[in-house]
């Protein structure tokens, strides 16, 4: 089975997710420039969510640079990853509309990020199980690859933080995302070496 079809489908779904998020942005009721200030939380959570999706896409793209083949299991693991990503527009909209409400919107945002991180971890493990002869996958994202597990642990802490201060969930999720801003250096170095 070709990995290019999976990558093209993933790219398309992520493009649709970003489009849905931007379509959720509504102009202020007033034509006054100051009315934009009232929408600052909506714009902020949109920017955070856009950045989240971009980082996930970037890392997914780098991961699939070392993948040689895919299977039905990989397709389903990737679908689980996309399912999590597809929930981002919903929770982004909810947080933007209820930024001073109860902890529910921020906690839900954290849960969606946790689902995505678990799905990405499952995707990596499924790829490793499929092709143990692929030394690139084994050495670059196999044993000793701590980012997915660290993210899952930090996301659980972020979700629990919603009980203390809901905004802290979003802040901690952003801190966790800092682990992923730069895709795995070892993959980039490996790809440069092989070019």
Automatic annotation (TrEMBL):
Its main location: membrane. Signal peptide: none annotated. It is a multi-pass membrane protein. It is found in: Membrane. The chain crosses the membrane at residues 40-58, 70-95, 107-128, 149-181. The keyword Membrane applies. PANTHER family: ENDOSOMAL/LYSOSOMAL POTASSIUM CHANNEL TMEM175, ENDOSOMAL_LYSOSOMAL PROTON CHANNEL TMEM175. Belongs to the TMEM175 family. This is TMEM175 family protein.
């Amino acid at each position: 089975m070709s990995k290019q079809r999976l990558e093209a489908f993933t790219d398309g779904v992520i493009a649709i997710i970003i489009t849905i998020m931007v379509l959720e942005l509504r102009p202020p009721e007033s034509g006054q420039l100051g009315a934009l200030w009232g929408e600052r939380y909506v714009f902020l959570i949109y920017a955070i969510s856009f950045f989240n999706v971009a980082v996930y896409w970037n890392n997914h793209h780098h991961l699939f640079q070392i993948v040689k083949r895919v299977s039905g299991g990989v397709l389903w693991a990737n679908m689980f990853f996309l399912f999590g990503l597809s929930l981002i527009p919903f929770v982004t909209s909810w947080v933007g509309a209820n930024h001073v409400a109860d902890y529910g919107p921020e906690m839900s945002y954290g849960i969606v990020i946790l689902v995505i991180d678990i799905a990405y971890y499952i995707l990596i493990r499924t790829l490793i199980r499929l092709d143990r002869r692929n030394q690139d996958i084994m050495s670059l994202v196999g044993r000793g690859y701590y980012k997915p597990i660290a993210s899952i642990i930090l996301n659980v802490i972020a979700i629990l933080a919603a009980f203390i201060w809901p905004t802290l969930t979003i802040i901690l999720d952003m801190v966790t995302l800092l682990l992923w801003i730069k895709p795995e250096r070892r993959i980039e170095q490996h790809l440069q070496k092989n070019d």
